[in-house]
Amino acid sequence: MPRLPTALTCVVIVACGLGVRALWDGAFPKYAGDALYTALIYALLVLALPRIRPLVAAAVSAGLSWAIEFAQLWEIPEPLRPVLGSTFNPPDLLWYAVGAAACWLVHHRLRAQQG
Q1: Which residues, at least 6 apart from 65, have a Cβ–Cβ distance to it below 8 Å?
Q2: Does residue 84 contact residue 71 with C-beta atoms inside 8 Å?
Q3: Are 69 and 89 in contact (CB under 8 A)?
Q4: What is the pTM (predicted TM-score) of this model?
Q5: Contact of 22 with 67, CB cutoff 8 Å
Q6: Rounded-to-integer distance, Cα 8 and Cα 64, Å
Q7: Distances (CA, A) of 38 to 58, 62, 68, 112
Q8: Most Cβ neighbours (<10 Å): which of 57, 76, 85, 112?
Q9: Residue 46 and residue 62 in contact, taking contact as beta carbons nearer than 8 Å
Q10: 79 close to 103: Cβ distance less than 8 angstroms
Q11: pLDDT beyond 80 at 111
């Protein structure tokens, strides 16, 4: 994948995450944020490894998101809480998978279009 569009995708994902939090209250922005968190990890993987296969990127991004969520079962150091969170929430695991699956679908289709 070309690096410039991938880098711009990272910026758009962050903007979407901030926008969702600014515009809505309740469960929607929280779970959208979970999916977008995983999408950002996915995009950063593609940025770092442009030839990564979509399935591998999806598995790694979901796996890292899950690992961070499970780490919240223990004490997360205070400086890391804004990025890693502090409270384990089982439904987050589903939304991380949704984010990874959505990214896989888009990435897979883009690669198919490129030949």
Answers
A1: 34, 37, 38, 41, 96, 99, 100
A2: yes
A3: yes
A4: 0.92
A5: no
A6: 22
A7: 9, 6, 11, 22
A8: 57
A9: no
A10: no
A11: yes
Give dist(CA 39, CA 13) in Å, integer.
7
Residue 39 and residue 77: Cα distance in Å, rounded?
A: 24
Question: Residue holding tokens 């944020």?
Answer: 33
Q: What residue segments make up the domains of the chain, in order of their start?
A: 3-114
Distance (Å, whole) CA 109 – CA 14: 22
33-90 pLDDT tens trace: 999 999 999 999 999 999 999 999 999 999 999 999 999 999 889 999 888 888 999 9
Structural contact between residues 44 and 58, judged by C-beta atoms closer than 8 angstroms:
no
Q: Is the pLDDT of residue 1 over 80?
A: no
- Neighbouring C-beta atoms of residue 110, cutoff 10 Å: 13
Q: Which two tokens stand for residue 18?
A: 């901030």
Locate 30 and state its tokens: 């929280």
pLDDT score, position 44: 97
How many CB atoms sit inside 10 A of residue 69's CB? 21
